[in-house]
Amino acid sequence: MFGLQNWALALTAALSVVQQTVARPTEVHPGSAKDIVLNSHDTLNGTTGGVFNTPNAGNSTGGFKITVTNNIASGLKCYVTGQDPNKNKAPAMLQNDGTWYYPTSSGEVGTPQPITADVGIPMNDKGQTTDIQIPGYLISARVWFAVGDLQFFAIANADGTYSVAQPSESNTADPSAGVSWGFIEFDYEEESGLYANISYVDFVGLPLGMSLTNSTGAVQTALGLPSTAVTSICGDLKTQAGKDGKPWDKLCQSINGTTLRVLSPYTYMMVPGNTGFDDYFSDYVDKVWEQYSSTGLTILPQNGNPNATCTVSGETLDCPGDNKNYTKPSSADIFGCNTGPLTVDNDVDTAIHKAAVPRLCAAFHRATFLLDGGDVQPSLGAKSYYTADVGNFYSQIIHKYEVDGKGYAFSYDDVNPEGNENASGSVSSKSPTLMTVTVGGPTE
């Protein structure tokens, strides 16, 4: 009897271990306004107080058309958010009548209040197109698409300005967490025209693709990901988690068994309690520092400046012409490419520093430092990327599924040897006439 009891206890313990190690996505639990986490990434801030919701307030100068093809489902909605440069950069949202709505709040300072204006623009059914007119200039803007309703919140600030809390991909209790959504980022200004991009630096959500036509008829495209991208990416991340024991599978978010989106490692790390990648690059960084203590690391600025040969002295990497040296970056520094030694201040940093940071960042993500030829950055082509047993495999997997290879999967993903095609996933024009967007993968 004693033996049977011991056997049963051992079996229970073994099953417990198996259950803990089975690869599973992160489950979301949509909450309410009290669950919103305010941060700079998910908040549109105004710079000056003011109320602009008066008749014809949205009829500002400029404008271009967006034609949306719905390749995913009925019930698709569009939202447009940004800052109006003609109204003191006030947060603005496009209404169904084609004018801007400027969110305000009569609630307590700092307390999010639901926006109830008519800002959810319904798209025609699957297989059909819908036209949207952007009535004027807009910066720090996003065109959101969602299968269902997204929730936005207005916030009164102590200085008299207003902010808008937007849906957060990282907050599993966000009120919109259970909705499948994605967005295209854009800036549209009088002098510079339109710049737009599809980016997977933060997450992969609803598959979006776009093209831009200018006044001469020239067309630029970024086709994005196919309709099955999220499911396929999560399958590959589950496989990678099984290889190295890191929580790649946890980058995926689901609700009731339906996969919604995939977070980047950096976005995942920014959530309190998510520690699985904290030391991910530590051993690799140590080996890189050891390697370049005895040999030089050549940085090719690719901006007209001379090459810089960097070496490790003590605990820092020093590059001639750089106004800063580099201590060992943490895994979060590497995944984010904008903290610690990998920070760039455009106002004070030298041209060499502005070139070195992107090249160091890209080499860490792709783990090319220790490969043959890795002592010159960038010099190795895409066939050498992600071939080590460490690296940003989230990025590798996304590029595997991109229809035309375009779309950032980490900051500075456009760093490549000279002559390689730009894979940034961006379009731009000083005289835009039409942006076309496909939701749910390219039209076959």
Automatic annotation (TrEMBL):
InterPro entries: Glyco_hydro_64 (IPR032477), Glyco_hydro_64_fam (IPR037398), Glyco_hydro_64_N_2 (IPR042517), Osmotin/thaumatin-like_sf (IPR037176). Keywords: Signal. It holds the Pfam family Glyco_hydro_64. It comes from the Eukaryota. Residues 1-23 form the signal peptide. Residues 59-441 form the GH64 domain. Residues 419-436 have a biased composition (Polar residues). The keyword RNA-binding does not apply. Residues 419-444 are annotated as: Disordered. Gene3D superfamilies: Beta-1,3-glucanase, C-terminal domain (3.30.920.50), Thaumatin (2.60.110.10). This is GH64 domain-containing protein. The lineage of its organism: Eukaryota, Fungi, Dikarya, Ascomycota, Pezizomycotina.
